[in-house]
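Tokens in:
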């Protein structure tokens, strides 16, 4: 429950201008931009120092933003193209104002990160060509930003988990109560509180409650600390829940990944092969769209249609490609065999059915130019499901199979916010002094996910929130 200012119970009380809850990309961007605007900042982080950085630390942290063609293979990508991709992939349900703000500020924010010393390299191959990757990944990105914040005099308090918002008699949010090694600590902030403390992906009870029974067993890709307190404390104080609370981000994972904090163990090369389930049958159009626009959806299909237990199968035409290895960080060796029958035995799927699947697939492949960098239309005909692009027969042994499953990265449900990241209450009014940035902001993603857009969303709205909160001091 929210506590009121001066309510008893805190062992210590501190005052600052802006308090930021959570030290991932959104929280760090918020804290740095508030400091740039001259505000005093305390960032509270629930994790100990060695686990800091949230989901951002586990990510490659690739970012899409409007850009001219460049040496990294980034193609011309306009604000309008990004806007239309994000709206299309949400089936038109994303909040158009928030998406426009994100797209219009993405490039400037990427340049802001560059000016702080972020170095870039090319993103994954065979995306739509607009993404770039921080050279040192998400871990390097958060370390850079923590150093920057430290150098600017921002205070970071580790092992300090926010538990409640502090509300003034006028119903302004004026601080947070935290559980820390010092005991209960109140931090009062004149400019406001910025919630940047992730979704509820690491909270098994909330997952089952909002996503469904199956969700208790998903592999957690990122931090164990995103357990939904930010959302719960805001809602308890009157914030309006918004967005798709029943859906989440995931990826097609190597099924041998560790159960929590597995990091980047996703297969990003499945479009070069086929998926089969435990009965040896295909169940997905692997070439439906660019990998960036299908991996979240396919991961959920593997969970829902194949009980989270499937295989991705390739032949040497795929396996020998230089980019195959770049798009998969193995957690174990691939299963390999000289014949499809032997491979089926290794996979423990019915050999006859599996061989029939592959031979029907091979026979259905249509001629055409194979080009992984575009939707090449080289598909199949006469089989269900079709493979719409990048269909090559699997006929060059040894054959390779990798076990795959689904996982959870972050949740889509969040808080209603305006374009300055201010939280809106259940009456539709701005909650003075309360902001949400990054994963706790709702109405950005629905059903599926446009690759490389969560880190940039955290940076954009964190930066906006920090600046706005500082302006109230
Ligand atoms: C393996 C993996 C790969 C990914 N790859 C990409 C990619 O390439 N591109 C992309 O755009 N996205 C990617 N993502 C998603 C993206 O990394 C995250 O959605 C994004 O970084 C979230 O940023 P954030 O600041 O909102 O949250 P986080 O980075 O998760 O930070 C939230 C912080 O809040 C802290 N916290 C939680 N509760 C409390 C509390 N009560 N009090 C105080 N602190 C609290 C947590 O400890 C954490 O440090 C990936 C994620 C994973 C796990």
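Residues out:
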């Amino acid at each position: 429950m929210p506590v009121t200012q001066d309510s008893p119970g805190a062992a210590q009380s501190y005052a600052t201008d802006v308090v930021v809850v959570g030290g991932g990309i959104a929280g760090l961007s918020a804290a740095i931009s508030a400091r740039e605007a001259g505000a005093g900042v305390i960032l509270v982080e629930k994790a100990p120092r060695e686990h800091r950085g949230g989901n951002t630390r586990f990510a490659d942290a690739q970012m899409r933003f409007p850009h001219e063609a460049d040496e990294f293979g980034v193609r011309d990508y306009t604000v309008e193209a990004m806007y239309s991709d994000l709206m299309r992939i949400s089936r038109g349900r994303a909040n158009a104002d928030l998406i426009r703000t994100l797209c219009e500020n993405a490039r400037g924010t990427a340049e802001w990160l560059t000016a702080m010393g972020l170095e870039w390299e090319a993103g994954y191959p065979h995306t739509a060509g607009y993404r770039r990757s921080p050279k040192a990944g998400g871990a390097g990105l958060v370390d850079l930003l923590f150093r920057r914040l430290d150098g600017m005099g921002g205070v970071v308090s580790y092992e300090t988990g926010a538990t409640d918002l502090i509300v003034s008699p006028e119903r302004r949010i004026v601080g947070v109560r935290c559980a820390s090694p010092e005991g209960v600590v109140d931090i009062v902030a004149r400019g406001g509180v910025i919630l940047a403390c992730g979704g509820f992906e690491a909270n098994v009870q909330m997952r089952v409650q909002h996503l469904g029974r199956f969700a208790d067993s998903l592999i957690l890709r990122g931090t164990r600390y995103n357990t939904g307190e930010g959302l719960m404390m805001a809602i308890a104080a009157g914030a309006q829940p918004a967005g798709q609370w029943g859906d989440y981000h995931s990826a097609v994972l190597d099924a041998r990944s560790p159960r929590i904090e597995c990091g980047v163990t996703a297969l990003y090369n499945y479009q070069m092969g086929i998926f089969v389930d435990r009965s040896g049958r295909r169940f997905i159009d692997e070439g439906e769209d660019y990998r960036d626009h299908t991996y979240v959806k396919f991961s959920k299909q593997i969970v829902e249609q194949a009980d989270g237990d499937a295989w991705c199968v390739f032949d040497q035409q795929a396996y020998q490609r230089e980019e195959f290895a770049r798009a998969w960080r193995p957690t174990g060796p691939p299963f390999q065999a000289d014949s499809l029958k032997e491979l089926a035995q290794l996979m423990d799927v019915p050999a006859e059915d599996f061989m029939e699947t592959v031979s029907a697939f091979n026979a259905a492949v249509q001629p055409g130019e194979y080009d992984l960098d575009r939707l090449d239309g080289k598909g199949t005909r006469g089989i269900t499901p079709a493979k719409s692009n990048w269909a090559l027969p699997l006929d060059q042994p040894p054959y390779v199979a990798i076990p795959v499953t689904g996982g959870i990265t972050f949740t889509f449900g969040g808080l209603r916010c305006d374009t300055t990241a201010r939280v809106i209450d259940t009456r539709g009014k701005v909650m003075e002094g309360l902001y949400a940035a990054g994963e706790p902001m709702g109405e950005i993603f629905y059903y599926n996910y446009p690759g490389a857009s969560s880190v940039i969303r955290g940076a954009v709205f964190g930066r906006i929130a920090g600046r706005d909160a500082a302006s109230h001091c």
